Structure formats: structure tokens, C-alpha cells
TrEMBL record:
Transmembrane segments: none annotated. Pfam families: FAD_binding_3 (PF01494), Oxidored_FMN (PF00724). It comes from Pacificispira spongiicola. This is Bifunctional salicylyl-CoA 5-hydroxylase/oxidoreductase. Residues 2-319 form the FAD-binding domain. GO terms for molecular function: FAD binding; FMN binding; NADP binding; NADPH dehydrogenase activity.
Amino acid sequence: MKVACLGGGPAGLYFAISMKLRDPSHEVVVIERNRPYDTFGWGVVLSDETLDHLAENDAASAAVIRENFSYWDDIAVHYRGQTVKSGGHGFCGIGRKALLNVLQDRAKELGIELRFETEIDSIEDYRHDYDLVVAADGINSKTRTALQDVFKPDIQTRACKFIWLGTHQRFDDAFTFIFEETEHGWIWVHAYQFDDKTATFIVECSEQTWANFGFDKMTTDETIATCEKVFAKYLNGNALMSNARHLRGSAWLNFNRVLCETWSHENIVLMGDAAATAHFSIGSGSKLALESAIALADYLHSEPSMAAAFKRYEDERRLEVLRLQSAARNSTEWFEEVERYLHLDPMQFTYSLLTRSQRISHENLRARDKGWLEAAEKWFDRAATGTEPETVRPPMFVPFRLRGMELKNRVVVSPMAQYKAVDGVPTDWHFTHYTSRALGGAGLVYTEMTCISPEGRITPGCPGLYSDAQETAWKRIVDFVHAESSAKMALQLGHSGPKGSTQLGWQEMDAPLPEGNWEILGPSPVAWSDRNQVPKEMTRADMDAVRDQFVAAAERGARAGFDMLELHYAHGYLMSAFITPLTNKRTDEYGGSLENRMRFPLEVFKAVRAVWPEDRPISARISAHDWVDGDGIGPDDALEIAGMLRDAGVDIVDVSAGQTSKRAQPVYGRMFQTPFSDRIRNEAGIATMAVGNIYEPDHVNSILMAGRADLCCLARPHLADPYWTLHAAAGLGYADKTWPEPYYAGRDQIQRLAGRQEQMTGKV
């Protein structure tokens, strides 16, 4: 096979080597525009796992690469005058020039032709003269551009500005992050050693800070001089250096995230940054390139045709690329939004940085550096309780206080509709459902949405709190929970609005009743769907009646003994229908601007707060995103909504999303709604609850420890296991003291079994 590799970077060179190793008869040529010993950029980071893959593929070049590596185990974070260091991370770096020279030498040994200082003006000559053309021509790929109608690249320019510099200042002991506050804004550094004399020194900042400094008007030399001044105390007199003199204009860049819809066309295939990029903050660009080179070389020799090899290459490598790009997106966004976290204590700030990509979990940090994580956990405990902890406990088991309510832990049984009420009265089903979850160890147990009137029910099976019989039934449940557990009970009150008079959840969700529908209300005559009835547009008299129903239900809830009240302002129900412009089309003072649309929900809250006991907190559940592209509520609006609720006196925001429109296209994933909670908590300055596909103790601990929420709500895990919290404690080796006395034997057994399993697996 005649093979042309367009681009002499790591991807092109290593693919050429891999092909020649599999069949020496291949004629392989590498075309590179630069000279043999030119390089731009400084160091390359690879993991031990990737090094193992290289050794399996080509032991000779891997051995030389290892000889040129600098290794470090720690991550050091310089922030607000403190240095926080965490170990066990296992990085290694090599100079990009050294790596290329190793690969060039190996290619020559194998008989690969290297053509330097050769411009690739047109892809057409290569596609006709060679059996296979590998376009490894980088992030600004000419091949991809020439055939963009085929490859259909999605190129997203990220927000931060960065400049790739080097220095002879040594950072031997750690991958180092430096955050400095200046008169122009915050600016930070990613630094790591890659040979005996040189370290990479990437300077990054927001575009606003970049403009405030005047970097847009500076030459490269002026930029370097400014950066040397800002980071002088970390450079110890060493200069900063640039090897990007080839760039026209400023050496500052914005990172481009590239992902192509397809990676091959006829006999052309994209590789490395030409096909997909991963942000430098997770150090995986070279990993993607080298491992893709190995994979494609394998498939070209294992599959029956080139087309089949391309298909397998794309199918299998795309999954890995998407995983890494997801992690890279999380990491990139953390740096883009770093000012959100600049109020955090250095310990929590470092934890947030370490877990930013979601590839490193709470227990993974424990495996890497148990001592550091335990110090962080003690910090969290001390910050929350104001006392020095006697023992280490995971964040999920640290108490939390709102007004006069103290929760024993931060696990919340999220509201889950049961559809088992009779005439709005909770039954023995509800008694069993709620009390079993309270006995299961959660700190706070929510009712399902409890409706304020018969007409405010979602379905005929929804419970209410508008009659004496309902109040009595709820009081029976609350009294048992208080007497037999240490859990607290939260009452969620709501009115169904446009989504009322519908079938039970296991029938047809949000569909109208086959018969017997009642009149429903809404801010505007906008139906949930073409099948649902059009709600009556509420008059001021209707609004007065609904407000008073909320007040009456809250008074009943207080008498029933609920510890906390939540107003349901999410998911398209009545209050949510006022908030989102998708269903609020009013032209009076209750429609139009967000401030107007919030007017009635805030009026209801203030009326309820006036009758709810002063020492008991009130939360509000909101939909932070309507998931309707270009329309409806988005994260910026959610921040404003949370600010209005905070100013009105809401104690905590329960941050959900969606379910406000049939047009919604939510983006699911683990902890997928937590970023909304994160932003509201850290920018609006109000306590939050995170909810949405949180299902592991690791999720809970990482969310809390990173300061992304104050409480974590779990729904489906508690349906599958009412004792989820107690089982989580046992699995973490935490001797939770809240097991009910009759269950002590079960507690002791599960703890013994967990200890035995730990010994067998060698868990640390």
C-alpha cells in the first residue's frame, strides 16, 4: 500500500511507524511543512496508560520516549497566598520537540520517507497518487477545510485567551496551577516540567481581563514582559520564552474545539486534531492522536477492506473522543467560569479544580491521596459545624442547618409522585412509603407535590392538603417519622395549572383524563399539548383565591408538624407557567418581563412566609432551563429568578430543570442538572439542592465537597432502595449511628461484609 501522511506531528509520524511495523512492504511518506527540528508549543503530557499502549505497539520508540520523560505525582495549586498540594496523580511530560525527534528517528530506521519544508497546497494530487491519505495536518487542517462539505466539522471557539510559553524555572515536584488577582482581573497559569531544563508555562485569562491588560495591543515581547511581572514570585528571576514567532499578530489564542461529523472520505481519513480536539487543560490531545494512530493501523490490517477499517476506526474511536471531549468541556468551562469559584476557601477551590472534568471522583481522590482528602473532609466538616471534627466523615454525613431545622446528613429523598391518594387523602401506601425512607437514613424526606385544592391536583390520585382528613393523615405520617427516626419531613405544595386533570403516571403521563376532566387554570390560555384542554386565563380574583389556598395549605402543614415547606415553582405547573414565557403570554403587570412574570409567584411566597413558622425554612423548586432552543427560560434567567427568591426571603432553592414544554430537548447525563445548582449557589449566593441523575455516594460527596450544592436530592435510587443512605454509609465504612435499634443486627452484618470485601480487593 502507498500511504501519504499529511502532517509530521505525533499523529502522522506515529501512524506511519505503526503501518510500517505491521507490514514493512508499505511505502509510507510523511509530508511536513516545517523543518525537521522546528516545533511550536512546548511540552506534551501523556499518562502511564498511554505509555503502556505505546510500548505494546512499538517497544523501541517507547523505551526512548520513557528515557526523555519528566515524571511528577503531585498537583500544586497556588491561590490566595496559599499552596495546596495533592498527590497520587501520576503525570509525565516530554518536550514536543524531543517527542517528534524520537519519532522522526524511528521512522527513518523503518524506511519511512520524511519530506520536510513541503507545503500541501492541494489534496487532489495525493488522493490520486496514493492508496491511502492520512490527513494529520492539525487543528487548522487544510484537508478538512478543502472537504468541509464532506467532513462537516463543528468548530466551537472557546471563551478564554491563552498563550503557550516556556521557562527555565523548574516545576519538578508538581503539575502547578497559579491563580493571581491583578488590578485588571484574575489570570492563571498551567505549568509543568518536561525536561531537565524547561517547563511549559501556559498563561490563561478571560477575554475581559485580556482586554483590560491591553494584551490585544501588545507585541509578543511586551506580553512576555507583562506576564513575567505578574508571575515574578513564581519565576525566581527566570525569563518566559515564546517559540510561536511564526504566528501573525498576537501569540494569544482561543482554543477551538473541533469535532467532525465524519472522519473519512474515499481513501482519505482524518486523524489527530484534524478530526477532533481536546482542551489542553486535560492534557489528552496527544493521547488521542497516538492511540488513534495505533487503532487505525490495526484496523487496516484486520478488516476486509479500507472502507470497513475506516468504519470501525470511526465507530470505536469516536466513543473515546466523545468521552474525552465531554471531560474536556467540563474542564474548559470550569476555567472559563473560574471567577464563580474565587470566593471559595483554598481547600475547597482545589477540590473543585481537581474534580472539574468529572473524571476524578471523591473516592478516586481518596485512592490517590488519602491523607489530603481526609484533611479536605475535615475542613468541610469544620466549616459547616464550626467545631473541630473528632473523626473523619464524608461530606454527605455532615449536618446542615436552615433556620431552626438541623438535618443529620445531606441526603434528601426527592419528591416522587405516587398517585395513590383517595380524594386527596394519603393512604397506608403513603404511610409505608414515607416512613420506610425516613427509617432508611436520609436526612430529609419530601412529600410528593401536595395540591392546594381539588382543582389544583395533577391527577385524581394526587394528595392534597385542603381538608381536615388530609391534614390528619399527613400528621400521622409526620408524627411517626419524628418519633421513630431522626429524619425531617418537607412538605411540597403546588398547583397543577395547565398540566392538571390528567391521567395517573403509569397510564399516560400528562394526557387528559378519558372522562371527568375538571376546569384548569393558567396564566394564559396556552394548552400543554394539542390534546390537553386550554386552561382558563386567570383573573385577579382567581389569583387571590389560589394565593389564599396556598396560605391555608401552609397553615395545615404547620399544624401537621412538617419541618420545612417547599413551593413548587417548576415543571410547568401553575407557578412555573407564570415564570416561563412559553406559557405566560399576558400583557398586564403579570406578563412580559421576567420581573413581571415573577410577580405572582413572589406574592404567593410572601403570603405563605407570613403564616409559616419563623423558625422553619421555606424552599422553592425551579426549572432552571426550559431546554427549548432559543426560547423560554435559560441559565441566565434562572440566576435572576434565584436572586429574586433570595431577596424575598427564600432559604434554599431546589434546582431542577425542564418539564415545562413538549418542545423541550433536555441534555441528559449523570448529575446533568447539577451545573445549574452550582451556578446559582456560587453566583446568586443562596443555598441550593442539586437533583437529577444523582445515584451514587460518590456523586453526592463530590457535589457537596466542591461547593456545587448544599443538599443532594435522590429520587429513583430511593424507589429501588428505601435504605439507600444506610447502605451508602456501610459501603463507605462510615459507622452511621442512625440505624433504628431493631435493625442493628443488619447494620453489623453489612459492615462486616463491607470490611471483608475491602480486605479482599485491597481497597484503600
